[in-house]
């Protein structure tokens, strides 16, 4: 075989080996397209919202890093994220396990202490409040001014309330735990025992109370703002009421993993979530119903009444929540109406 052909074959072999190594490394290293650092984000929020949020951030060509969503199967295989976007009880658990990295934040300084970690390991970004969805025909009959608070619902005569079974999901258990954290356990159980008489049947699925209220089979739904926003239409025959005393909320925050070596790039994404109007635009476009804590970024703290946002602070473990839920089942859910 001529020497030139041998050299050509050897060159092709080296080219194939180099391509194979490069192709394999693309999925293993932290370097993404165009030489930018890749940050992995773990979150259990709606995937469409997360992808839109990530796309908005990555579209800025001046950034040094791009965000990629860490898939559940990748996490099961032991791959660690650089960033978390999770409900605050999940972040607190990670903090107790010493899995979060403390980084100070100028925007975080504007947050009330209850909406952030005291060691600056996580910061609240947005929340999803429990609201009343009131049928418009019912409100016209009985008066909107009489349907403003938790106490108003108890006083209403012949009202049909639609609500999920509180033992069915993490969201409903968190709602009960937040209510009891603020109002007290005994008072809360007594309240739900009274409310039980106005609930013809508990719903198994999150969107059932909304459907029942909009078609007139219920007068009022106790539900989450995020669920309502997925159903919103121009001729929606119901309206939202934020309870005047305050209401349980699911607070979602951002944090950096302690094992990540990309603190500066991770901090930029965290501050973007806290201060930029872009995430709020994405949340609105995606009909999430989420409400941002710092809606004006660094232009001031606009959480006028933080005491009206009720967090689960007393039932932080699954065991504690299960005990509380069992008490609700015994004293309210299956109580004689």
TrEMBL record:
<keyword id="KW-0732">Signal</keyword>
<protein>
    <recommendedName>
        <fullName>Extracellular solute-binding protein</fullName>
    </recommendedName>
</protein>
<keyword id="KW-0812">Transmembrane</keyword>
<feature type="transmembrane region" description="Helical">
    <location>
        <begin position="6"/>
        <end position="22"/>
    </location>
</feature>
<dbReference type="GO" id="GO:0030975">
    <property type="term" value="F:thiamine binding"/>
</dbReference>
<keyword id="KW-1133">Transmembrane helix</keyword>
<keyword id="KW-0472">Membrane</keyword>
<dbReference type="GO" id="GO:0015888">
    <property type="term" value="P:thiamine transport"/>
</dbReference>
<dbReference type="GO" id="GO:0030288">
    <property type="term" value="C:outer membrane-bounded periplasmic space"/>
</dbReference>
<dbReference type="GO" id="GO:0030976">
    <property type="term" value="F:thiamine pyrophosphate binding"/>
</dbReference>
